[in-house]
Amino acid sequence: MSNYPHLLQEFKPIMDLSDAERLAFIKSRWIDYELSENLFEQLYAKLCGHRDVPDFFIVGESRMGKSSLVDRFIAVHGAEYVNEDGCRVRPIIKVEVSKPSLRMFYCSILSCSNSPFNPDASEMKLRYKVESLLTSSQTKMLIIDEIQTIANGTSRQVADFMNEIKCLTNTLKLAVVGVGMPSANKLLMLERQYAARFVTVELPMWAPSVGFRQLLKGFESWLPLKQPSNLASKETAALILKRSQGITGYVEEILFHSARKAIETGKEKIDLELLEKYQWSPDVSGMRKYVR
């Protein structure tokens, strides 16, 4: 086995695999970065019941990695397990809301359980069952994804939904984390108490920075290429940033496409020539266009 100094030790054995196997290895995986590490510390403190830590709204544009971030946190700190009494414990429950409907909200929470429930039951009965589930599961944190969709309802629907989140989490002493687009912030402007309870954490689009170069080094540390690509070099990082418009999902897409081409052509590294051949690039509106 070659030394492969650009790879982390745990990924070096991958280089003994066939080209087809290395191509199959190129798929999404978590990469730590400074903002995520700081946020994880705060979320974990909240999960542990530290009252001096606020609840959070995590916001960012599409494909900036919001869902991946909370999924990673759940995998590390909130994995489901069976305790010594044989009870199923879920420290964290994550649900996604698609419309400002309390019935659908309750049903989404209940769908996390193996216990049957009647989705046509009254909202009062569904809410009672939700309280029972969250209590029996010893849930400490409720994560609500796509929370900006609540704002699509009428003033009454929005007020009722936000009030129910407050009442439910207060009653059960749950931490709550909202995840969504930046437009979710207007929910916090409805009442002073919401703004006081939540702190907004924005996942900004990447800019030329040490943090962006560290992200690129993170990709290079596991992408199964035999030669160093020096993705964090000034010229290479600038081109990746330009083509991706600073959007995490596009950075990943560009690097995965280029890494596959590097293996298929025998080049075994991502260089400027490969990056220049990437044919999809977002314009100023965010829509991607074909680049010749």
Give an overview of the whole structure.
- By secondary structure, this protein is of the alpha/beta class.
- The chain has two domains: 13-30 and 206-277; 54-203, P-loop containing nucleotide triphosphate hydrolases (Rossmann fold), CATH 3.40.50.300.
- 43% of the residues lie in helices and 13% in strands.
- It has helices at 19-25, 34-47, 66-77, 102-110, 123-136, 155-172, 192-197, 210-220, 234-244, 248-265, 272-276; strands at 55-60, 81-82, 88-89, 92-96, 141-145, 175-180, 198-203, 280-282, 288-290.
- A hairpin with a 5-residue loop joins strand 2 and strand 3.
Characterize this entry briefly.
It comes from Pseudomonas fluorescens. The protein is 43% helix and 13% strand.
What keyword list fits this structure?
single chain; 292 residues; alpha/beta; Rossmann fold; 2 domains; five-stranded parallel sheet; two-stranded antiparallel sheet; 43% helix; 13% strand; Transposase
